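Whether sequence alone determines local backbone shape is best considered at the level of individual chains. For completeness, the protein is quoted in full, as a sequence line and a line of structure tokens:
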Amino acid sequence: MHRSWRILDYVKPYLPILILAFLLMGVAACFEGLRILLLRPIFDEILANVFFRAGAGSARIEIFTFPLTGRHIYLDQLNFFSAKETWQIVGCLIVATAFLKGICEYLSTYLLNFMGQSVVMTLRNRLYSKILNQSSSFFYSHSTGRLISRVTNDVERIQFASSTNLADALKQGLNLLVFLSIIFYADWRLALGSILIVPIIVLPSKYFGKLIRRTSRSSQDKLGEISEILQETITGHRIVKAFGMEEFERSKFKQATKRLAKINLNWIRVHSVASPYMDLIAAITISLMLYYSQQRILSGQMTTGKFVVFMGGLIQLYEPVRRMSGIYNSFQQARGATSKVFELMEEQTEIVEKPRAVRITQFDREVEFRNVSFNYNDTRLPVLQDVNLTIRRGEVVALVG
């Protein structure tokens, strides 16, 4: 399993919260879709009566038809108010759907952010414990700046992906399904035509995502390098000043920030192409749809209200499709950060307890060292070699060398 998928192990304890948030997002998406569907009675009934002085018809006003069952939903079935006129019913429904949608979105967003913050808190604590339990050789092979970058910057990227970005992904994904259903209800031919452009959107987005993930990993490495230089300069400021190395350290820091800026500009260049590309595809698609719909309205195969519902659904559909590209790119950034974090989590601890080690609760008699050898990681010369030492209770022993 790829390292980045291991984050799911931290999500499992919060699965009920995730499911509840998903259901609330689904309800909010349905309310959003209902507001689009209410455009049909507004144009076919309310505005038609105003502009063309048409009398109120006795036929029931259809709102939606389920594609598989063929069941119809009519406006009077949604009249939970004491309203009598069509405009009163539609107005009350618009206000009610906006209010209920807001409540569902608030609760689902809070629950998802609660889950994301909890997951990241657990991950950050375990990562810190893992670093704390490592031996001295681990800190020789891993610079302080890079370790700090893993615990702070990389985990922060994971937090954004598992809370804010996840909430946005669920919202846009469910809206995508709802608005797809609406445009197929309005005109399945137009809907199929709009789906044909999906590969033109998805394939470039996937390519952009790969480039962004690559630059994201490089950016995190360079940020860790800057943290390392800062840590060395600040903690060793006396040595820097004693040897007059200010200019050298300044030059080294400038080179590191220049490398980071270059990588970040590459990321911005790739990320900035995605949104204008989506805008261009959307503009071309809507122009073609307008030409086709005009012919169907003139021939009486489509009402003005149904056309407005289709265009409303298509325009609202554009937002999730456009946002999905940015969401995917953000997840790729988090995926690169997750790989770095779990790469550190997989580091084996050099010094571990024996399987059946005796736990000493109190010191009774003496401490004995037998054949103890030690050397620093950066040199093979032994500092201690075959040292035997016994220290009895009450004695004070100092090793000077």
Residues 254 and 295 are 63 Å apart (CA to CA).
